[in-house]
Write a structure and sequence with these properties.
Oligomer: single chain
Strand content: 5-15%
Shape: globular
Number of strands: 7
Strand order of the largest sheet: 4-3-6-5
Radius of gyration: 21 Å
Mean pLDDT: 84
Largest sheet: 4 strands, antiparallel
Order of helices and strands: HHEEHHHHHHEHHEHEEHE
Low-confidence stretches: 1-20
Length: 319
Amino acid sequence: MRASREFNVRKTLILALVICFMTAFGAQAAQINKVAAVVNGQVITMFDLQKNAVPDLMRARINPNDPAQAKAVDAVLRKALDGMIMDILVAQEAKRLKVSISSSEIDSEITKIMKGNNLTKKQFEERLAQQKTSVSELRGNIEKGLIRQRVMAMEVGRRVVVTPDEIKAYYDAHKDTMYDRSGLHMALLVYHPNANAAALAAQIKSGAVSFEEVVRKYSIAPNKENGGDMGAVEWDKLNPEWEARLTSMKPGDVTDIFELQGRKAQVRLYRPGGGEIKMLTFEQAKPMIDGILRQPKAMERFEDYTNQLRSRAVIDIRM
């Protein structure tokens, strides 16, 4: 789910405006070919760093050409650089571990993206072109994400342990939230800037208007004609933010308004075709609880692992 969701939101709401923001770096044009950092011999240029920082600058509404915001720009650039350094370290670690991603695996992810957006291959390529993104660039990003997942599973996931006692204690404390999540879909509503999101959200909550109707009339996210359906939730691939948001919901629930890439948004969790909410027995709930309890432990282990990678690396930051 992560690959398709990030494509839908990040590509649709951000990449179409990247060129405009990159132009704002014009005053620093002489700097873009300079080296921002060298990681175990691999160079990160200022151009690549600035390009990677554009989405965060846009979300924070920071103008990189405004001298008064120089400190804020520097903070965003350094955060982006930190992420790029980690990407390089993980990629180098993948080579050591002989981790590779096949073309068919990348093809499969692209197929999921197209299906999730109800696009033909031609429509998909046209949308990429509109967003100034090449197919090869997208494939590279997908490959990078899959490699990261594979390395993390090998070096982090297998070292995380959740005990039977922990699972039983969690079930006893959360029995009323243990429902069958298989086949649940997520619908996304991203409000048009001119829409009165608060008023519309209140109408959805009161039942005066349906979530699907608001999506069709006011959403700027994909699949608005299908009620914003983003496909079945892949619970094992959710990032922590989305996991926290969705696991607290029951089928049919709609979130309050939250910020998504600088826009007001809401999400609905539902089962196509409806049906009653089915509660899980302890045995049925064990795999789900294991995943819930494993996530924070994995994040702690991930931090330890990334610190180890950094401590073994030769990193020369030149900003």
